[in-house]
Write a structure and sequence with these properties.
This protein is α/β, with parallel strands linked by helices and 327 residues long. It contains 10 helices and 6 strands.
Length: 327
């Protein structure tokens, strides 16, 4: 392979992720992905059956198709695989809901519960799902997170029929090169953003060289490019709507804040005014009281210096009061 620019479609888009891995001719790559991230040990491609297949044909309908990729194993277990590029409301609830729905829909009317098989959700995300990793003690945790039902006190598995696996590609991007392991080559493929990166990947193993070559052919497919373009447009619209909503929210928040601030300011002003009035009244009352006491003492003929010391009134003030009494 040379380094010519083939304009590869990025596999981090959920629509291209599904389109590439759902192709029957690419089943070997899907199998390798499942083996690496779910710790499976399946050698034969015939052991997995694709239940959700290739992208629909180009049509006048602009709605993005269902992007989950479903696989059934030979033992009856089912896996739902998807790529999430951005955070969505109630994302974890949705993942858990679809997994349990997949689990409950296995039985037909009258069938025994013993026929229920394990269901697994394998979700690749371009953002951190478990944000506690920001704490120092979590820095060395894997970007692959396996979640299942556990006994709360004993910390032992309760039942393993419902399993969730979150592959946080955002965390993988922060992983040091010396800490990488064999499976990480697939994360590199999903995140590859240039011909140079893909060329380097193709040099690392035979299966990766084949995967990169197939990605080139896939990227030249009109249907794949159509849905990728539709996806990019939908993402741009979503980001624009979100940006507008944030801007409008801030604007409204500032207006409400100013209005509330003025209201609180008037309220606080009245409060401060009452407080100052009371303080001034007390001060004036105390001052008047001092003068009345001084007048009584002056009438009794006490020394003016002694009265000044007792009342904290100045000599000038006392002389003025004495003159008033004399008139």
């Amino acid at each position: 392979m040379n380094k010519k620019n083939y304009n590869y479609l990025p596999l981090r888009y959920d629509v291209t992720f599904k389109g590439f891995f759902a192709k029957a001719s690419n089943k070997k790559f899907l199998l390798a992905l499942l083996n690496q991230y779910l710790d499976l040990d399946i050698a034969d491609e015939s052991a997995i059956e694709l239940l959700a297949t290739e992208l629909p044909p180009i049509s006048s309908v602009s709605k993005i198709p269902n992007l989950d990729l479903r696989v059934k194993l030979k033992n009856g277990e089912q896996i739902n695989i998807e790529m999430q590029i951005s955070r969505k409301d109630y994302f974890l609830k949705r993942i858990y809901y679809y997994n349990t729905k997949l689990y409950s829909e296995q039985l037909k009317s009258g069938e025994d519960y013993g026929k229920l098989k394990k269901t697994i959700s394998l979700t690749f995300t371009l953002y951190d799902v478990f944000t506690e990793d920001e704490n120092e003690e979590y820095q060395n945790l894997s970007y692959v997170n396996n979640v299942s039902l556990y006994h709360a006190e004993r910390l032992t598995p309760f039942i393993d029929d419902i399993a969730l696996c979150f592959v946080e590609l955002s965390k993988y991007q922060r992983l040091l090169a010396e800490n990488k392991v064999e499976r990480d080559v697939w994360a590199d493929l999903l995140l590859a953003d240039s011909d140079e990166e893909l060329f380097e990947l193709s040099e690392r193993s035979d299966i990766m060289a084949e995967a990169v070559r197939e990605l080139k052919y896939f990227s030249e497919d009109d249907v794949a490019r159509y849905w990728a373009d539709m996806y990019e447009k939908a993402e741009r619209d979503r980001r624009a709507e979100r940006s507008y909503a944030i801007k409008e929210g801030r604007k409204k928040g500032l207006e409400e804040g100013r209005k509330e601030g003025r209201k609180e300011g008037r309220k606080e002003g009245r409060k401060e005014g009452r407080k100052e009035g009371i303080e001034l009244g007390l001060e004036q009352g105390l001052e008047q009281g001092k003068k009345e006491i001084a007048c009584n003492l002056l009438k009794q003929g006490l020394d003016i210096a002694l009265i000044s010391s007792a009342t904290n009134l100045s000599l000038a003030e006392l002389e003025y009061l004495q003159a008033q009494l004399s008139n």
